[in-house]
Amino acid sequence: MAATVYKEPAPLLDRENPLESMMSRFNVAAEILGLDEETYNVLKTPDKQVIVHIPVTMDNGKVRVFEGYRVIHNTILGPSKGGIRYDKNVYLDEVKALAAWMTWKCAVVDIPYGGAKGGIICDPTTMSAGEIERMTRAYTLALKDVFGPDRDIPAPDMGTGPREMAWLMDEFSKTVGMTSSAVVTGKPLVMGGSLGRTEATGRGVMVATLAALEKLGMEPTEVSAAVQGFGNVGSWASKLLFDKGLKIKAISDISGAYWNDNGINIDEAIAYKNAHGGRLEGFAGAVPMDADELLVSDVDVLVPAAVEDVITEHNAPYIKAKLIVEGANGPTAASADPIIYEKGISVVPDILANSGGVTVSYFEWVQNKQGFKWTEQMVTERADRIMTDAFEKVYAVSQKYNISLRIAAYVVAIDKVAQTYKFRGGY
Ligand code: NAD
């Protein structure tokens, strides 16, 4: 029987195209910088887009063909870096936007990487470990000439984690005939992963939140928060903000949202999630609430840490939070930007707020290349300093031009990449 290509329907129509969202901010920042047309054209287009079709023998013996992507947005600052997403709704424009965000993110935190992203259209929740392993290895083999420790370095994203990174590292190593630890980050600790990587993105969200609260003159112990998404980023951000004394009144995941006016005990929520297949469903430490309601709930800080486009022109007018810290990539549609700005809500944008992850991924790569393991203290101290410096730089630019932190972050990033491009030169 002929193999079929597994492809889900296109994403929901009312979702904004993340590539267009990214480009509209890029355009504003480019204008502020007075970016010349040549550099603009170089930076707006991805360097390379690869689409692969991967045949995988499923457990029932039938072959299913999965569609996968790897987009290299830019390598002016160094080898490209970016996660791999396993999701049934992944599509090329989303991967292109995520790849560009990686370029800007690495530039904002001043690490020597370009930007990339990958994805496979699949639903890992319905696949066995064996099926996911075969798919991951086949994807790696299909992209063996794209990946490389000095070329393009993948990492986990939604639907992937250390397990998939281990398979990717192993498969790539076979193709080059030697162990190549630095080809991928987010690996298990025993095989060259970095201490502090698991919590790195959530930790960066915490550091960015505290820095922003200080600018706003708000005391962390008097502040309430709602966190959307309770995966790697959301649960760690919740836990570390909870430890700093913030009252986390609402949390949610794909299975539901929960509210406790007195604050949720995040340690209990994490223990519950770990004991219940990674989901919050049935969590008794809070009362169930409407998932959409969480975004407009009565809290001081909102941390979207799940998926794109959850804050839109439709719900933005009703947001009560004074500060939004974007743990997720692209959680705010561009159409919501002016509404949020008018309301005087501060937004620490994704390319700054969640850059703690790629920063510690960079540390992992450095350690692999050094053949040396840093202590957890070395990792967290260096990552916190990079995060704080980046926040201050972006904040200063926002003050200088009287612009939002989001546009300021794009200005910082594009300026760095454009200046490097000028020095390196084109054809
Ligand atoms: P994850 O797969 O570990 O967790 C995602 C969480 O979001 C899960 O709890 C899931 O149930 C929940 N979720 C999904 N759809 C939801 C919805 N509609 N409403 C509420 N909850 C929903 O993924 P992650 O690694 O935590 O990534 C989350 C976001 O952060 C993504 O945008 C990702 O690109 C971004 N990000 C992740 C990292 C990282 O290091 N993991 C780094 C930078 C950015």
From TrEMBL:
Residues engaged in binding NAD(+): T201, N232
InterPro entries per record: Aminoacid_DH-like_N_sf, Glu/Leu/Phe/Val/Trp_DH, Glu/Leu/Phe/Val/Trp_DH_C, Glu/Leu/Phe/Val/Trp_DH_dimer, Glu/Leu/Phe/Val_DH_AS, Glu_DH, NAD(P)-bd_dom_sf, NAD_bind_Glu_DH
UniProt site (Important for catalysis): D157
Protein name: Glutamate dehydrogenase
SUPFAM superfamilies: Aminoacid dehydrogenase-like, N-terminal domain, NAD(P)-binding Rossmann-fold domains
Entry keywords, A to Z: NAD, Nucleotide-binding, Oxidoreductase
Listed Pfam families: ELFV_dehydrog (PF00208), ELFV_dehydrog_N (PF02812)
Protein family (similarity comment): Belongs to the Glu/Leu/Phe/Val dehydrogenases family.
Record SMART domains: ELFV_dehydrog
Location of the Glutamate/phenylalanine/leucine/valine/L-tryptophan dehydrogenase C-terminal domain: 194-425
Active site: K117 (proton donor)
CDD domains per the UniProt record, alphabetical: NAD_bind_1_Glu_DH
Keyword Oxidoreductase: yes
Keyword Oxidoreductase: yes
GO BP terms, alphabetized: L-glutamate catabolic process
Superkingdom of origin organism: Bacteria
Residues binding substrate, per UniProt: K81, K105, S361
Gene3D superfamilies: Leucine Dehydrogenase, chain A, domain 1, NAD(P)-binding Rossmann-like Domain
Alphabetized GO MF terms: glutamate dehydrogenase (NAD+) activity; nucleotide binding
